[in-house]
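Progress report, Aim 2. The chain analyzed during this reporting quarter is listed below.
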Amino acid sequence: MAFLQHLRRARLQQVAAIVLSVLTASQALARRPDRWYRMGDDPAQGTSAGLVADSGNGNTYDSIGTVGQGNLQDLEPFGAPAYVSISGNRPVAADTTNNWAIRFNGFDDLTETGDYLLGANLNIPEESAAAVSGGEPYTGITDRGYQLWFQPLSLPATGAAWILDDGEEYEFRIDSTGVIIAETRDASVTTSATAAAGAWTHVAQVRPSGNAGGSLFWVNGIAVASQTGEQRSSTTGLVIGSNAQPDGAGGTTVPGGPGNTAFFDGLVDEIDMFVLGGAFGEFDYTKDNGYFTDVFLPTQNPAYSYVDVTGPLGTADGHNDKTWVEGDINFDGSRNQADIDAFVAGWRSTNADSLVGAGPGVGDYVTLGKGDLDLDGDTDIDDFVQLRFAFAGVAVTMPTAAQLAGAVPEPSTCALMLAGGVSAWVRRRRR
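Predicted structure tokens for the chain:
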């Protein structure tokens, strides 16, 4: 009896912690955009087809910030990166304001030059150029992320080509077969994802919540890597189209020389870099992963069709304003019995075998479609609690503790009953 009482107390404490996390998450804000490199689509750019150096002031513009306030981080071109029209082949067809991308031509052995863009890194936001200049109040802010679209036009003959390298700390590249390699600090992991020549691919790399939250990596909305979240300071810059390395004097060098394959041959578009934490809110995959919001959701139901008017800063930000309905496990735009059935079918599923790296579990739209409501990569008691919160007041038949517990040995019937009891108590308190 004493053991059972101890078990019940332990489970109740676990469920109470889950309840607190659910309530906190429901109030959380999404990412705070720090930079938006539209790669030619900023109205002030005056873009025309041709060299980046020949449009506007010669740099490609950061579209988030205010002139004169130290929070605009434009990118300077080196070699011959050029603006090209993509109006007939946009990454997100519904985003009709996106008409330009930047073409990188890899490395030219004849001239011994490669194409790339260079700017200040974001790395640790409180140490970034915008924070140091006073342009952004990033004191104490260390969490961050980026996402972008890229399209290889050819794959490197050998070695790997870098698409983005932020301070030599957060980066990714593709090898000669199109396999995507993610890197945090000096730790590289080879993912199961590939990028095909001539096709757009979306990538997101995020440090969402301190060291314990890891450094998470998604390709086309699918979680493929989870690394540890430790950080290092860096004075190396942000490089697009090649590999950034420290020059030994506090600056940045980019590898060169005949036969160099580190330079990317293809298109890059819509680089969204953002900060998280403190007053700027928390990362929310269902609101902040551009592939999920802009591509996946709109294909599931007209209720999620693409509209971009009001982003986190109150203006268009290149992402869908429509947000996922909490609990809509089958993505039909509403909460109904079909979502409950999908949850039961996905009970105890996990994506652990498809992730590489030593970081925490992380979910995506596939695991979410199996009931992984907390997006940690599996469907378990935590998600059962969230399910009951999401469906409070909705006319559905919830799974019983016996139904779920009878399918597998854990979590126990006791834990599930406690989850249901706490949820019911919260609903009574709200009345």
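Residues 166 and 238 are 4 Å apart (CA to CA). The chain has two domains: 2-28+325-430, 35-295. These observations will guide the mutagenesis work planned for the next reporting period.
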